[in-house]
Amino acid sequence: MKKKIRYILLLSLLFVIILCAKSYARITTNDPTVESGGTVTITVNSQEGVASGAIKLTSNGGLTLKSATGGTVNGGLVAFSQANNKTSGIATYTFTVPTVTANTTYKVTFSSQDMADEIGNPVSASTATSTVTVKAKTTTNPGDSTGGNNGGGSTGGNNGGATTVTEPKFTSANKTVYATGDINLRSSWSTSSSATKVSKGTELKLTGTSSQKVNGYVWYRVTYNGQTKYVSRDLITETKPEENTEKSNNTNLKTLTIEGVELTPAFSANITEYSAKLTNYKEQSLKINAEAEDSKSTVKIEGNEEIKIGENVISVTVTAEDGTTKVYKITITNEEKEGLGLSSLVIKGVELKNFSPSKFNYEIEFKELDQLEIEAIANEEGATVEIVGNENLTELGEHIITIIVTSADGEQIATYTITANKLAVEEAKQELDIKSILICAVIALVVLVAIIILIVRYVKGNSNAEIDYVYNDNLDNKEDEELIEKENNKIGETPKEETKKDGKPTIDDLYADYDDEPKRKRGKGRHSK
How far is the C-alpha of 223 from the C-alpha of 176, rounded, in Å? Predict the structure, then answer.
């Protein structure tokens, strides 16, 4: 009984180990043959069914990757995930092979990552290498002196003999080398194969050397940016070339632009003077982009700190590595222009004082009108004018009238405000009456003064004509008063003949020689009371 229990436990443990253990599926590839300069397809397969994972291209061996399929492609990585296990065609890669003049083989290496079967059991990673054979083109080599006229050796005959250029034999190496100048790295040992240009001093990793001359050169194998390349041994060196100590004197600008501003003439590195126009520019500076042709040159912009109305000069100085300078001059003319507004504003029947396009608030008074006829003209062509609040002015007091001027492009707006005060009709008549009274009073005063002056002149004229002034010096004041009083008492009585008293003449005797009305005249003298 104990043996059976042990046997069951052993089998269970073995079963668990089998379930937990990773399966091993080695990936495989095909080894295709292709014509020189053509394309080749390499298929990656698995010895055991897998449902998910990724295949990575670890080395293209000198071929150029054209495309890949089988899942999500990211460069040389193909990731896949499916419901069922798969063994063939996990991933497919297409390469372009170089043009060669000798039969050449290329080694392309792949590796698997995160492989698992359909129930999630992990599958161990592995690698596979595909050998791609590229058939070389045949070339005809000149024969020796024993050949025919166009011969090529003992087997040549008149048409010469053909030989096949074979692949160079490389000896492994591991050194750092440098390009002696601006050179081309080839994808094969053929001068007609695709090339990658590198500059002087570029660091390369030497992986193989050869002493055999193929296509006129002794080729070395190098690695550049993770790719295998071929280069003539005469174009590389183990000593890093010295950097060029000669300093640049390039003072040219590569670009010169001002945001929102057009330069005249158009920019050219050889033109150093430019002009541009602005209108009512209010910002402190312009956004200038000036880039030098030489990265070692410096650019300095001056005169752009504040753009004022009128002429502004901006200088862009380029200083080369060796200290040489060149100055680009930009003359900016900032014109001041009257802003959007009204050129004319007239209100029919109402006086509008001191109109100006730059004055935006006005006050007016009017009577009786319930609507104002306003004529407003914009100072820009295409601008629109809208008048609001000039109708239904029935109530007394203040009314606000708004005039809105909008530019043709709709980007500018100017607003004028009129405070209109409507007066009552009675107030208007009362004001008129007061004015009329004042005017009449002034006229009456003038007339009165004129009358007084005339009367005074008349009275003076008549007084000078009175007869009693003739005898003014002959009469005693006291006697004159007594005589006048007597005469006044006798008015209406029958005149009596007066006798001379003390031998002096009477009043009647004095006036008798002049007229028939002595009594009336005697009562109007300067001495009468």
Answer: 10
Cβ atoms 291, 254 nearer than 8 A: yes
Classify residue 362: in a domain, yes or no.
yes
DSSP string, 320-366: -TTS-EEEEEEEEEEE----S-EEEEEETTS---S--TT--EEEEEE
pLDDT of residue 9: 60
Which residue's entry shows tokens 């004095």?
Answer: 510
* Cα separation, 331 vs 134, whole angstroms: 66
Q: Can you list the residues of the chain whose pLDDT is less than 50?
A: 16, 18-22, 139-163, 465-476, 494, 496-501, 514-529
pTM, rounded to two decimals: 0.30
For residue 94, what are the domain limits?
23-135
Query: Two tokens at 435?
Result: 């004015």
**Degrees (nearest 5) of the Cα angle 425, 430, 436?**
130
Q: Which of 113, 108, 34, 132 is nearest to 71 (CA)?
A: 113
CA end-to-end span of the chain, whole Å? 186
Same domain, 30 and 124: yes
| pLDDT score at 314 | 95
Residue 127 lies in a domain: yes
In the chain, the number of structural domains is: 4
- Cis omega before residue 122 (within 30°)? no
Rounded Cα distance between 408 and 323, Å, is: 52
Is 264 found in the same domain as 364? Answer: no
